[in-house]
Amino acid sequence: MSRENPRIAILGFAIECNRFSPVSTAEDFQQDVDIRGNRIVAEARSAASITLPDVPGFFAEMDGSGAWTPVPLRVSLAQPGGPVEANFFKEFLAEIGAGLRSVLPIDGVFVSCHGAALAEGTDDPDGDLFELIRGIVGPDVPVVSVFDLHANVSRRMTDNVSVFVGYLENPHNDIRERGVEAAKHMRECLAGARTAVTMMKVPLVPPAITLLTARGPYADLIKYGQTKVGGDIMNVSVMAGFAYSDSPKNGLTAVVTARNGKREAAAALSLDIAKRAWGMKERFKKAMTSLGDAVQLAASVGRDRRRKPIILADVADNPGGGARGNTTYLLRALKSAGVQHVLFGVFNDAALAGQAHQLGEGAIFTASFNTQEHHEFSLPYDCEAKVLKLSDGRYVGRRGVLRDVSADMGPSALLDLGGIQIVVISHRCQCMDPRQFEMFGLDIAAARVVVVKSRGHFRGGFDEFFKPEQIYEVDCPGLTSPVLANFTWTKLPRPVYPLDEETTWTPPAV
Q: How many Cβ atoms sit within 10 Å of the Cβ of residue 88?
């Protein structure tokens, strides 16, 4: 091992799992990102990587701060979905294990992670991965990882990392910056820093729409944590978790990494943040706009150009949380009401997109939505449509979470339904970047009503067009409904607030 030219293993495993969604398969990873070896290095150093931005951020900081040698293993990412199929995850672990052993000795390990994975046969695949890594590299090799704010945290995760770095922003516009931060911590660990990582969980599972970080209770918690960073405190991460994982790990968790082995200081701060979270628990409630009110508002905005344009967020059908991106409740209601000047995106229906490509631009036909998927919420709907424009679905994001990220929606089509122009895609993903409309020549600034299949990341991409007061979260059925009482929970720890109003919590002694 060399302090002058440290060898750092690079790997990634990132998926946000919704227990109520269909199983995530090897094909889901292959459709998104599943790369090995030198392809990882090439993507990390490209101007528009297909990886999560923390990988390019880590590389940029390591490249700029001294000599090092990346040892790339495998980076596997998939769109949020159901638990990962058992064979894929077992094979992934086996490959990572064999790969790590083959490159020993190693000076450090960087992991681009999410933290809310599930897999068939295990409720803590992230813990399985970090336990495997630590068991191979030993107790003294730094393992630094970046996690999504919606990670469901276990002690098997925190006990096996040297530095735990959580995103600070939601929408996650800071992923690259967290990769840069991780590299700085890696350099410090390589120089001999001794760290301690602690966690404290509270029985609080907030609805996802209450977890924005520009303002609100979650913003206040994160900002407070950041005032404590410095001196012995290396990192503070307040992880809200992902409710739909229906996991024994669910619950808002404060994770603190301390320098100089100061475990007591880290534990005290973890507890402090947990107490603050519990003290403001009632603030993690938020009303949505009913479907009827949303349609009435859209009709009014469509008619009256003196009113400001609006976004309707179909938060219950957010592919970014494992939903299918193809419910028709809002679409049918807008169409029935004759609402005009609507941009709608992105609707996941590979069969319909394929039909549009076969027919060609200018074709008029009966568009049949959801002919191939028969999920509980994926109801069929037919209406007359005209094919306005076709695309291969490839683009580079320009704002927010997808800024400078290469993305692929698969064969895609812009259809005119008569007052509603809808983007239909083949690769399930949420709507969060203006390019998903602009690639079809659409002018978002000219639209009166924009409908997005997204929970919150669209805010980071569309904020140049819409202020927060122009955004309405619509209460429709779906796999990511913020109304937690709509789900049958089997593994979520109970009681938990706000699902169980009577929930109590007694802070433990540290």
A: 22
Range of the domain at 59: 7-283
Tens digit of each residue's pLDDT (9 = 90 or more) over 108-142: 999 999 999 999 999 999 999 999 999 999 999 99
Q: What is the largest CA-CA distance in the chain?
A: 69
Q: How many CB atoms lie within 10 A of CB 23?
A: 16
**269 three-class SS:** helix
The pLDDT of residue 426 is 98
Same domain membership, residue 304 and residue 275? no
Q: Which two tokens stand for residue 436?
A: 């998903």
Tell me the average pLDDT across 199-218: 96
The answer to whether residue 154 is domain-embedded is yes
In a domain, 489, yes or no: no
**Residues 161, 124 contacting (CB under 8 angstroms):** no
Give yes or no: residues 278 and 305 share one domain.
Answer: no
Q: What are phi and psi of 461, to 5 degrees?
A: -95, -30
Identify the CA nearest to 142 among candidates 167, 116, 165, 174.
165
Question: In terms of domains, do 254 and 315 share one?
Answer: no
- The tens digit of pLDDT for each residue in 394-445 reads 999 999 999 999 999 999 999 999 999 999 999 999 999 999 999 999 999 9
Give the number of domains in the chain: 2
Report, as an integer, the average pLDDT of 474-478: 97
Query: Are both 94 and 175 inside the same structural domain?
Result: yes
Average pLDDT score over residue span 153-171 = 98
**Based on the domain organization, do 194 and 307 belong to the same domain?**
no
Residue 91 CA to residue 77 CA, distance in Å, equals 15
Q: How many CB atoms lie within 10 A of CB 31?
A: 17
Query: What digits encode the pLDDT tens for the residues 22-69?
Result: 999 999 999 999 999 999 999 999 999 999 999 999 999 999 999 999
Q: Is 475:290 a contact under the CB 8 Å cutoff?
A: yes
What does the alpha-carbon distance between residue 424 and residue 410 come to, in Å, rounded to a whole number? 10
Read off the pTM: 0.94
What are the angstrom distances between the C-alpha of 355 and each of 25, 364, 394? 25, 11, 19
**Which of 233, 266, 283 is a domain's end point?**
283
| The last residue of a domain, from among 237, 260, 283 | 283
- Do 325 and 201 belong to one domain? no
Beta strand ranges found along 327-405 (DSSP E): 342-348, 364-369, 381-391, 394-396
